[in-house]
Amino acid sequence: MLKFALISFTFILLTPTTCGIFSDEISFLVLSQKNKYHLGIAKQLKHTIIEQSLNLDDGTNPNIYLAHEVFKKDNSWAIIPILIDIRNQLITSKTKWFVLCEANSVINFKKLLSSLSTEDETKEVYMGHSLYDREATIIHHFAFFRNPSQFHYPYLRAGVAFSIPLLNRLANHLSLLSQQPKMLTDFTIDAAHEIALFIWNVDKNLVLKSVPYFCSHYGLECAIYAKEENIFCGNAISLDKVLFAVKTCGKYHKERLPFIQKTWARFTIHLRFFSDIYDATIPTVQTGVENTERGHCEKSLKILRLILDEISKNSTLKNIEFVVLADDDTLLSISSLSEYLGCFDKKEFMYLGERYGYDLFSDGYNYITGGAGIIFNTKTIKKIVESCSCSSISSPDDMIIASCLKQLNIEAIHSSLFHQARYKDYSPEVLERSSISFHKFWQIDPFEVYEHWFRKKDEEYYEINKHILSDYKYIKQNCMTPSSVKNKQKQKSNQINSNHIEL
Known about the structure:
The chain is of the alpha/beta class. It contains 14 helices and 23 strands. It has helices at residues 2-14, 36-56, 67-70, 83-90, 109-116, 164-177, 191-202, 257-261, 297-313, 334-341, 378-387, 397-407, 446-469, 486-491, and strands at residues 26-31, 63-66, 97-102, 105-107, 126-128, 130-131, 153-154, 160-163, 187-188, 209-210, 214-215, 224-226, 242-247, 270-275, 284-286, 322-327, 330-332, 351-353, 355-358, 365-368, 374-377, 413-414, 437-439. The strands form six sheets. The chain has a seven-stranded mixed beta sheet with strand order 15-14-13-16-21-18-22. The chain has a six-stranded mixed beta sheet with strand order 2-1-3-8-5-10.
């Protein structure tokens, strides 16, 4: 009788408290980044999962991997390129589920084990929070344009669980495709949509299973939910430390610039409009580089050289630490940006924005998209000016800069707060209240977009910081203005232009 009791007691200790799954039967991959700010968030998530697993006391530990630590290439965020490595390196003979998440995912480990224990891990299946496009969008290459809502893809930050049979099949399929490189896509834009499309192309019956315990926001039923990125770390960057550089050309001076001048430009201190021609009514800074229909590589590098030159000569720019390079159809939140910049370590190189990827199945690189706005600190700009060049005047500026920075071991820092496309090109669940940018004025009213997303917070921020802004009531461009027009500018010195803030 005593022997039977001991056996029963041992059995109870070794049985998972969640009725079916032990902690070590799940492997997590957190899509982490190397920069100090984002790395801290990822490490905290890993620590939280470990602490929760210890409280379960099932005698095992979960396998938790940070992507940047496991994979040498900076392509893990794209998911598809690392499918074979995931199978070979992260999956053990005990693994029943592979769970993919982001650093800003929040995980209730006990509830996750309990929820997954109700699923059949022997089937080819993947589960998550389902997203779909309301209309065909450029960021998804206009896929399913006749009915884009029919195709569902996962919200990565809400967590995605893959069964091992499915993971094995995907890895095998990728292995076959790797023998035919032309079958692999060159560009990576939205990893969530692209992995779902990859799976669907393997087998049209393999569609995302939407489950209630993977959530877009907090709920009692959630095993994993998406948390908005924190943009306030206690020390927002003063706007006198940020220079905004807008790329434009003569044909868009009247068509696009008024939208910028009447929205976010009102709250900047240091603002420059760089164009192929000089226009005193704005005023613009003439780059001396002819306009091209696309690419703009030579123009962007010239802008960065001009900025460094002015910083060295113009005493009003002595505090500049950051430069925002934006298109003339980019909408920005000045307040959210200044708060967010305060989260980063000033000792690190900054190359920040929305990340896309090129040739990530081989020896490609990540690049920050120009339309969403590229944020550099001055130490990064110095490296670019010293080391980077264009193969042609119309080479793609964002990609050439990224390729050059890769050679300098300066990595792109991704943030979901920046957007290369319009707000309507994204599923509403992934848009955050503290978004920093949107791009393109096509088929939208820029004033309405700015009003809805940015105006109120920007105005509140302005009221709080106007004592700082008042010191910069008249910011001039003497070091960059052609001498032939300086006298005309003096005559207009009482006028408020886009580089001035009227207080």
